[in-house]
Amino acid sequence: MRESTEQALRDGGLDPERVRRIILDTLHEDLGPDFLDVTSVATIPDEQQDTADLVARADGVVAGLPVAAAVFELVADVTGAGRTVEVSVVAHDGQRVARGDVLATVTGPTRLLLTAERTALNLLSRMSGVATHTRAWADELAGTKATVLDTRKTTPGLRALEKYAVRAGGGTNKRMGLYDVAMIKDNHKVAAGGISAAFRRVREAFPDVPVQVEVDTPAEAVEAVEAGAKFLLLDNMTPAQLREVVASVGDRAELESTGGLTLPMAAEYGATGVDFLSVGALTHSSPIVDIALDLRDV
User: Fold this and answer.
1) How many CA atoms lie within 13 A of 213 on its CB side?
2) Taking the CB of residue 282, how many other CB atoms lie within 10 A of it?
C-alpha cells in the first residue's frame, strides 16, 4: 500500500494496518489461499495493461475511496510480482455524486485490475450506502441541534469502515465498542440493583471512562442525572416525553433519543431539543450505492 494512501486513511481516522487486514481477509474470500483469479489468468495476457474507471451507477454520497485505492495497491503487492497500479481519485469522500460520475481511475496490469475489482467495489459500495443513508438523516435534522449517531449494530469485521462512512455522511460515532464507553442499560440496572448503584460501580472501577445511562422515563432521567450521569439514552420515548426530559434536565447532561426511530420521524424528534438521535439502521440496513468498474475501450 502506498504511503499517500496510508496517509489518506489516517486523515480519515482509519488505521492503515486495520484496513490492510480487512482487505486481505476479503481478498482471501474471493481469491482463495493462493490469491488466484482463474478467469483473468486464463483469458488475459500477463503483459496486458489497461485503464479502468470506477463509475457511480446511482446517485448517492461516496465514501471509501482511499479504501478502494488500498485494495488495488494491495492486490498488486501480493500478486503482481513487482508490478504496480496507479490510482487517481477524482471524487472525495462525503461528496454527493450522480449516476455516471467517474469517482476514480485505475491503470495497471489488466489481470490485477479485474482481480481487485469485486473486493474494491464491495467495500466502496457498502461504505457509500452507509454514507448516503446517513446524509439523509443529517439533512432531515438540519435546523435542529440534534446530530445523528450510529450504534454497534455493524457488519462483523467492518465496524471501523462503516463508522468512517457515517462520519463521511455527516453523522457522528457513538462508541467503537464495549471498551471505550460504559453504557448502563436496563439489564445492567437490574443486575446492579438500580441506576445509582450501577453508576457508582462503573465510576469506582473505571473513573476515567465516559458513562452513559439508558433511561425509560422522565423520572429515571432525573434520577440518573442526580446520580452523576452526564449522558442519557432516552429509550423509546415519545416527543412529549423527550421535551419533558429536556425541560427537567436542562444542560446537566447530553441527551440522546434512541429506539425505533425512522427517517420520517427525524425532524419531529430532532425538534424536541435532544442532542442526538441514534439509529442502528445506518449500519445494519443501508442499501449499497451501485458502483462499477469499467475498462476503457481502446
Assistant:
1) 29
2) 27
Q: What is the pLDDT of residues 233-242, one digit of tens each?
A: 999 999 999 9
pLDDT, one tens digit per residue, over 185-234 is: 999 999 999 999 999 999 999 999 999 999 999 999 999 999 999 999 99
**Which residue in 185, 186, 268, 294 is the catalytic one?**
185
- CA nearest to 164, candidates 3, 21, 19, 37: 19
Residue 187, Cβ neighbours under 10 Å: how many? 10
80 pLDDT exceeds 80?
Answer: no
Asked if 185 is an active-site residue, the reply is yes
Please identify which of the residues 2, 83, 118, 243 carries the catalytic annotation.
Answer: 118
The catalytic residue among 235, 244, 256, 275 is 235
Q: Are strands 254-258 and 276-278 parallel, antiparallel or unpaired?
A: parallel
* Mean pLDDT calculated for residue range 134-156: 97
d(CA 263, CA 273): 17
Active site residue 118: yes
Q: Is the pLDDT of residue 122 over 70?
A: yes
**Grid coordinates representing 46?**
500477463
Q: Which residues touch 150 (CB under 8 Å, ≥6 apart)? A: 134, 162, 163, 166, 171, 172, 173, 174, 278, 279, 280, 282, 283
pTM score: 0.95
214 is annotated as an active-site residue: yes
b/e sequence 163-181, b meaning 16+ C-beta within 10 Å: bbbbbbbbbbbbbeeeeee
Write down all domains in the chain, each with its CATH number in brackets.
3-130+287-295 (3.90.1170.20), 139-284 (3.20.20.70)
Q: 145: which 3 cell numbers?
A: 441541534
CA-closest candidate to residue 274, choices 290, 259, 296: 259
